[in-house]
Each structure stands twice: as structure tokens, then as C-alpha cells.
Amino acid sequence: MRTKATTATAAASVTAVAAAVVLPLLTAAPAAAASRQDLAKDVLADDGITLLDSHVSGNDHPESTAEQNVIDTSEGNPASTSPWSDVGVTDVDLSTNMLEGMVSLGKTYSYRVTTIAGGDHSATSYHYAGTAVDIDQIDGDPVNSGNSKVSELKQACEDLGAVEILGPGDAGHDTHVHCAWES
């Protein structure tokens, strides 16, 4: 038969064990968010992510290609827009939200990026802020209205927090998926 003292002792023991398990979890510092530079390195290290080292328009400005944008960021430098863009050549910091999205997409898909900050887009494009990526191949197949993975990739971008998602059927986006995040 349990007495009040035995019950109180047992309750105190359970409370002490629970505190020993839960308290460190509550007081542990949260993991530091990956830096822009580290995320860019992760993108470069992913063999499934191809970054173009040229512009699909045929214009020549090696400093503003998708590949160079990510290399510059991985080295702690800003990315560059293109001279024929609506903003001219400017320095931009690539968004950590976008880079996290790119890394996450790379866990499910292999894909090719044609443009990040470079190229020519609408005057208010997310690209010029370093927050958008254009993808023209998914798992080796070109992006077009017949590619069944287009809708999957667009949904994945939305699930990863993209605020603007365009693709085949949207004006100017028949050959690529455009995903943009807040900065």
C-alpha cells in the first residue's frame, strides 16, 4: 500500500527525470542558420544542379552568369546583374531563402539553372534582387508544357516558400520554371 510520502517521492523522481531530459532541449541554443556563403557552396557541391556559364540570350557577360553568381556568393562576394538588364550592372546579394530552396530542390531533382541575377527580365523582376532562379531542365528533360515534372517542381517551390512561381502557360516562361523568394 502506497503512502502519501511514497507517492510524493515517486512524483519527485519522475519530475527530476523529466527535467533532466526536457530542460537541456529547451535551453539548448538553436542551430545556426546556414550562411549565404555556405549555401552557395552547397549548391556548387551538388552534382545534380547545373549552373549555366553563359546566357541563353547569347549576350556575353561572364560576370553575370548563373554559375558565376553562385561562385561569387560562395566566395563571400556579391553577385552581378547584366549590362543589358533594366538595372544595368549592379551588385546583389543572393537571397538565403532562394539558396535554401535551390539546395532543397537538389535533394529531389537534378536541374539546370539558366539565370539567377543576370539576364534581362521585367523592370521589377525578383532576379535583380537576387531572389529568383530560372530552371530550364528537370531530371534531364527540357521544361515545356508536356513535361510532367514541371507541376511537381512548381509545387515544390511553393512548399519551400517561393512567392512567385511561373512556368509554361505564363507569358515569357514557356521554356523554364521561374521561382522567386522574398529576400
Q: Your description of this structure?
A:
The chain is of the alpha+beta class. It has two domains: 1-30; 36-180, no CATH class. The chain contains five helices and eight strands. The chain has helices spanning 4-27, 36-45, 66-74, 96-106, 149-159, and strands at 49-51, 79-80, 91-92, 111-115, 132-138, 141-142, 164-166, 177-180. The strands form two sheets. Strands 1, 4, 5, 6, 7 and 8 form a six-stranded mixed beta sheet that branches. The chain has a two-stranded antiparallel sheet with strand order 2-3. Strand 5 and strand 6 (141-142) form a beta hairpin. Helix 2 crosses helix 3 and helix 2 runs parallel beside helix 4 (96-106). The longest helix has 24 residues, at 4-27. The protein is globular, with a radius of gyration of 23 Å. It starts with a helix and ends with a strand. The model is unreliable at 4-26 (pLDDT under 50).
Helix share, percent = 25-40%
Low-confidence stretches: 4-26
Residue fraction in strands: 15-25%
Biggest sheet: strands, sense, closure?
6 strands, mixed
How far apart are the first and last residues' alpha carbons, in Å?
64 Å
Helix tally equals 5
Please provide the ordered H/E string of secondary-structure elements. Answer: HHEHEEHEEEHEE
Number of DSSP-assigned strands: 8
Structural class: alpha+beta
| Shape, principal axes of CA atoms | globular
Average predicted local confidence, pLDDT: 88
Rg for CA atoms: 23 Å
Task: Give the oligomer, counting copies of the same chain as homo and different chains as hetero.
Answer: single chain
How many separate domains? 2
